[in-house]
Design goal:
Shape: elongated
Order of helices and strands: EEHEH
Number of strands: 3
Helix content: 25-40%
Structural class: alpha+beta
Radius of gyration: 13 Å
Amino acid sequence: MEKKLYYQLSDNVDVWNITMTLTDCFEWIASDMEGLDENSNDVEYTINPVWMTQDEFYNLPEASI
């Protein structure tokens, strides 16, 4: 089965290695930032690429997010 590129998103607050598409990562970060003050630099994000099959992705707990 062909592997696709997904991304693991982590932050320094409460998110740890949630795997999703890059578009979903950007949407997650944008949603988080809406609730923060524009001068706040407290949250740091890390995005790591990971290759996996679609079946591997769908078997992850966060695939239903």
